[in-house]
Structure formats: structure tokens, C-alpha cells
Amino acid sequence: MGRWPLVGRGPELAAFAAALADRGCRGFVVGGPAGVGKSRLAEECLERAAAAGLRVGRATASAAAGAVPLGAIAHLLPAGVDLSDPVAGFAAVARAPATGPGPRRWVLLVDDMHLLDAASAVLLRQLMDTGVLVLVGTVRSGEPYGKAVAALRGGDAVRRVDLDVLSAGQVEELLQAVLGGPLARRGLHELSAAAGGNVLYLRELVLGALNRGDLAEDGEMWHLREGRLPGTARLAEVIGGRLAAADAAGRPVLELLALCEPLALADAEALAPPGVLAALERAGLIRAVQDRRRTSVSLAHPLYGEVLRAALPVLRRRVLLVEQAARVEARGARRRGDLLRIAGWRLTATGTADPALLVQAAALARHVHDYPRIVAFLEALPEAHRTTATALMLGNAFFEMGRWKQAEEVLARAQADAVGEEERIAVVLVRTAALLWSNAPASVALAVSGAALEEIHGPAGRRKLRINEGFMRVVAGLPAQGLALLEDLEADVGDAPDVNVWIRGAWMKPFALALVGRTGAATVWAHRSDAGHRRVDEHALVSHPAVQRIPLVLTLSESGRPAQALAEGERGYAELVAADSVVRVWMAVFLGRAQWLAGHPVTARRWWAEAAALARTIDHAMALRPALGGLAACAAVLGDLEAAEATLAEHRALAWTPPGLLSAGEELLGEAWLLAARGRLARARAVLASGAGAARATGHLTGEMLLLTDVARLGGARETAGRLAELADRCEGELAPARAQLSAALGAQDPGRLLRAADACQAAGADLLAAEAASAAAAAWRRAHHSRRASAAAHRAAVALARCEGARTPLLAGAPATAALTAREREITLLAAAGNASKDIAQALALSVRTVDNHLHHAYTKLGVTTRRELAQTLAAGTAGAGPERARRPS
Length: 891
Known about the structure:
Helices cover 64% and strands 6% of the residues. With 891 residues, it is mainly alpha-helical. It has a 5-stranded parallel beta sheet with strand order 2-3-4-1-5, sandwiched between helices. The chain has a 3-stranded antiparallel beta sheet with strand order 8-10-9. A two-stranded antiparallel sheet has the order 6-7. α26 runs antiparallel to α27 (549-558) and α38 packs antiparallel against α39 (787-801).
């Protein structure tokens, strides 16, 4: 993998540049803990000094070299210098740069400067004081050093910067640069958490994953295989060397922490006296944190535990776990989570635990959304102790992990065994949700709910099932029907008789409101459901509260507030990744959609690629279909037609599955935009119009608006303007009227109205629509021979297009070149430039071949070309200055 790029160190490099420019500066010291990239930064500084024309050199201090006077820098001393006479020897060394070729000033990098011997440190300090030498040194935080080395680091003439570990954002930037493409968020989260921002550890983890095939690319982005974080032999050696700093008395504490961290300070002191613990803390091996009156101890880095556990014999591991469980039980297991930990320790150590403890631990794991542990505890439960309640917990855990088949098996059995209305309703709530996600027809889940409704006679129970039916109908793509059943949902979870029912209904209600255009009320409900879910999360048997931000992303983006939508979605997605919730697949779908509406196809492509990869993993076609459609659309507008076609081939190969939250019509975006990229605008409009019809039939008003707006963008503005105006009157927010205004302006080809539409689209955060409107205005001004106004509009288009990540659409393609063409001539020239023969163009547009050729002849005359090759070149040249290059598909 070679040397990794330097990321996140801009301020430090600027500090070095300032130090180098200061003739009074004698040194630049880079400090920080091991592995944060001190040497890499120092190397970059040395390279910049060399590029500035200065003489450079390098030395590496070590414990071995430190045992020999001048051992670290002996190779830098002039031949024949006798250092037995310090005065004469120093003078000879100081004169050497002046007598040799090149500049007199010398920049020397000394890595691990704290390990220098005293003689080397004294000589270097003397050279620094004369101005001959600028020292660039690295020192490890917390390491001891002598007075001579302290002199190298001190004084006003020596600048110092201290590096910290990389932030999560910097880790993401670094890995994207290293891998040549984006990494899926779950893999990014796991690598970032495991490495703790330490660049050395991160590098070895990545190399280990690549070598074992656990880190692979799917054509769109990189993915880390779940549960696999293999390192390298070098990583084990480095960490093993760090752990070797602990003496024998501290080893038991480290081993127990590897299995049971964090530990109460009293538990750590039961294995080692306070002095030993303090020594471990000074060595950077453990970390103590005080929270009010409680002090807990943990390992200083997560990878220390990996290495320690790998070296622990089975019986030693068992002894440590059983003894720790006994210690916590002896003090009464009073702390929150103690029962969960005790059950885990005993189960790991012996393969079994007290049944009552397993049930209690499973309930605690449910409250923190730790679904793998719920499964582990309840599958270890003896058959005689299994109940409907434990089956419900187990089935829900399987559902939350995307294990649909196991969920249905457990929940169907639980429903059959349920006693009383309350138990039956509780099981039906979870079972119907699992069935909806499992690719079964919605009628199956509705039938289960309907059968339960026949058995429930109390009004309270029947109302719960009606709210659940509303939840199901929204999920199944029938927002108006679902909304009617959710209309009387309590405004506050505190007033709801059943928090699980309320949370399900409150999750779907803002979806339904947004999909039918009531984005104002949808936003209120999305915030309400998020706050309510978080208040009662410990008492609920539902997904992580962050799922409530998914409808918020939809409603904010459809309101014309994409920046807020993306900020909320990013926060929610990070929570769902940390909880390893598969429901995050829908957050990724809606984040991709929000970025598409904003006109950012590269970022939308990344989100949809992430959604598609997860949907494949859990076999969730309901989310996979819109993700693939969006992926293909992004690839098409970025000019990656091969990728678009491959994605559509996967989409077409999917077995039929019921539509999900979004209209089935939105799945057609990819097919339509690939046709448009190939110049087949009439066919693309027909595909989009059919999708808009499907959206209208299911009541997806905002989805219908999205598709009709694209029809207008591809030349059908006159046909869509009326319906878009109707929808704009029914839909709230800034985006709906902006879409209608754009369509009307495109139909009229009025440059003034087009510029006002550009303003409206920009105010709604739709960058690409704004660029297209301004570009169309520029073309209209050119046709009217108003060159100055045309140039101003073109500049506005270019400014908006610069935010659109390389998107190219027919309204932008060759706009300056084709401004003089009629709409029909422009459509035919785009098809011809894409390589279509006149016969194929005639068939696609329902024209005669002669009519096509006549239009082409007129277009050739206006454009001053004579062949189709020249036509394609002219159209390409017309877009060269309109915006950034097309973004390439991630490699």
C-alpha cells in the first residue's frame, strides 16, 4: 500500500512553514502518543524543506543507539572529525555545511528524539544555537528523557506542535484517499472505533482486512465483512510491545479488563495494589474515569483487548470470568447493567447461566438494543423456561437483525401459544412488521392482523390493531389509507395506552403526511415521534429511537430544506450504525433521495449504494428496488452509462416484490435517466409519465411531483405544467411551488420567468434545478440576441452547477451550442450525437426518416457542422465551461 497520504494536519504544516520562514527559529518538535502520525508529519516537513532548497538529513534515535555516544547521528558527521576534543570537533562539524556544496542551512529530522544519547543532544543543540541547523524532531508523549534532550525541546527558538488522534471525519477522508473510493459507514465506524484514531493501528487493520479479503469493493463502494477486523503480525507485535511495559503484577488486571471492561476501581484493586494501577496508567495502558463518586477503569485502547484475549488460555479465561461474576454478585449487582454483564460472563465461561438471570439479562439487552446478546441469552434458555414473552423478545431481535425467516418461525409459534388479548396483540404487532419487511406480499401481514382483529372484542384492543393496520398500509405504499387509520393517534406518548402501538403509529404518520404533501404537519409529527420514542425507549419493544429521524429526512427535503434534512439524517444514521440496526437501510434510501432532490448525484449515489449493499445482505427487496433505481439515475446523469445499465439489469432481475414506502414509480428514475443520457428523451418522458401515474394512483403526491418535474426537464413542460400547478396548491413547503414554477417557465420559454424559477429552486435547495433553469434562460436570451443577458444567466447557471458534482442533463448539455435550435431540432441532435441512426430516431419519435433528416440538416446549418462526429464534438464543447468535469465512478 506504500506511504499513506497526510490528512488532517494542515494547521501543523502551516506552523512548520512559518517556523522555516523565521530565521530565528532553531527547531520544530512534533509530539504526541505512539501511532498518531508524528513521523509521517515530520517526513512531510523534511520534504517541504528540501523543496525549498535547503539541505536535509535524517536520523532515528533508538534505545540501542542511545547506549553509544553519538550513535544516532554518527552517519551524519564529516569523515575524519575527532570528537575527543569537543571544542575542535564541534567547530569542524559546524563548518562542514558551509564548505560542502549546496546551502549552508541544514534541516535535520530526528525521529524518537527522546531516545537520543546526551552527546548527540549536546552537539545538536550547539549546532542549532549557531543557526547552522534547524532540528525537526518527534517525541512520544509521556516518555522520560534527560536534561540534554530537554534542552533540544526548550527555549523560545523551538516551536512545538502536539498531534492528537484523527477524528472520525479525518479517518473517513484518509480511508477514501487510500482506497480510492468511499467506505460504507458501518465499516468506517468499526475501523474508526477499533483504531481509536491511531493512524498506525488503522493502517494495519486495513492491510489485514485487504489481505484476507474482508475489505472488498462492490463496484460502487468498499465494504468490511461483518464481524471481521483482522490485523497484521506487525500490529500484534506493536501492541504486544506496548503491553510488555506492564510488569507481572499488573498483567492480571489487563487480562480481566480485556474480558470485562470497564471495571469498578475496587474490582481492579482486588487484583493489584494502587501503585501497580498507577504505573499502568502512567504507561498509557489503562485509563481511569471518575463519574461523581464512582471510578471505573478500562484499557487505554480497544485493540489492547483484542491482543490480550487472543493470548488468554481457555481455562484462564473461564477462571477470570467466573471470579468477576462472583465479585459483582457479592456486592449485590446494584449497578445498572450488572445483571446483563453477569449473564454474559457466565454464559461465555460455562455455556449456561441461571434461567431467571438469562431472562433478566435479555430484557436489559433489549433496552439497549443489543440484539445479538438477546439472541444469545434466549437461545441458551432451557425449553421449560421459555414463554410467550421470551419468544416475543427473541422474534423481535431476529427481526431487528434482518433474520426474517427465524423471526417468522418464532413469532408464528408465539402467536399460537399466546394467552389473552394483550399477549396476542403484542405478538401481532411484531409479527406483522417482520412479515412486511420479509418480501412477503402486504396481504399476508394484513391477513394476520385481520385474523387477530376477529379474535379481539375489546374496543381498546381493536383500536390498537387499527393503528397497527395504519402502520402497515403506509409501509405497503398506501399513505392516504394509512393516514386515515392514524388520524386520531394521541399527540403525546404519555397519553397512549400502549407505547409500542403509539411508537409504530407515530413513526409512520409523518411518512404518510409527507408523501401526501402535508409537510408542515409531517415535520411537527416527526419531531414529536422522535422525542416521544426517546422518552419511553426503555419500555418499548421497537427499533432504536433514531429511526424516527427517517421520516424527518423525507419531510424536510420535500419542504425545501435539504441542508436540515441531511444534518438530521447524518446524525440519525450514525446512531443506527453504532447500534448496528438494519433499519438504517431506509435512512440511507431517504438520504440518497434527499441528495438527488438537492442535485448532488455523487453523494446521492454513495447513499443509495450503501442502501443497496445492506438491502442485499438482509434480502430486503422493498428497499433494494428504489436504491437500485436511484443508483442507476445517478450513474446516468454522471455519464457512467455502463454502470447505469448494469444496475438496471440487477433491478430488472429482482423478483416481484410489493412496493414500499415510496411510490413504485420512483423506481423508474434510473431507466428514464439512462434513456435521457442516450438522447431518447421521448421514451424517457413516457417512462416517467407512467411512473407519475402509478404515484398518483397510490396517493404519493410528492412522488408524482418529482416524476412530473423530470418530465418537464426532459422536454414535456407544456404537458405537465397544469398538473404540477394543481399539486403545488395541495403540497406544502417551498419545493412544490418551485417545481411548478420551473415547469411553467420551461413551457413558456420565457427567460425572465426561467430566472425567477431559478431563484425559487435555489431557495428550496434544488441546485440542479436552479442550474437548469438559468441555463434555459441563457439559451432563450441567446435566441432573442440579448448576448449580455445570456452571459449573465449562463454565469448564474455555472455557479449553481458547480455545486452539482458533475451532473450533466439535457437542459445543460450543449446549451450554448444549441441555443439557436428549435425544441424538436435539439431533441433530434441529442439523439444523433448519442450515435443513433436516423431510422432509429424516427422510430423513437414517431416521425418519418425524411423529417428527421430535414431537422438534422437545419441543425447542421445552424451549428456549422457537416457530420455527426462534428455534431457530437460541438455539443461536448458547448458544455466544457459550464461546470466541473463529470465525476468518475468510484474505483
